[in-house]
Amino acid sequence: MNSNSIEGDYRTAQTLETFSFLPPLTQQEVYEQIAYMLSEGLTPAIEHEAPEGSMSPYWTMWKLPFFGETELNKVVAELESCHRTYPDHHVRLIGYDSYTQSQGVCFVVYRGKTW
Q: In this predicted model, what pLDDT tens digit does every residue of 6-23 receive, in sequence order?
């Protein structure tokens, strides 16, 4: 088999975030990432986008960021609600760092139908 024809080659595969280079996260691993984000004091926010628009840097935000949220189950419930409302969209979770005024964490939790 020719190495140029390998499907899913990291140089040609479309990826969404850093975790896209890893095997898909299990539900438990997603919960652990959310718990870590909350323990670091990051503000959760959820965004979604149709697969054809996923390379745009601007995704639609699901509600406002959850300022002061410390409950894992509330973040998970909102992720699931967004996914139920937009089942064909990619859904990602962002953890905003209020000190650096930047994203501290960002990863796709649900992938749209094309993935």
A: 455 555 566 777 677 778
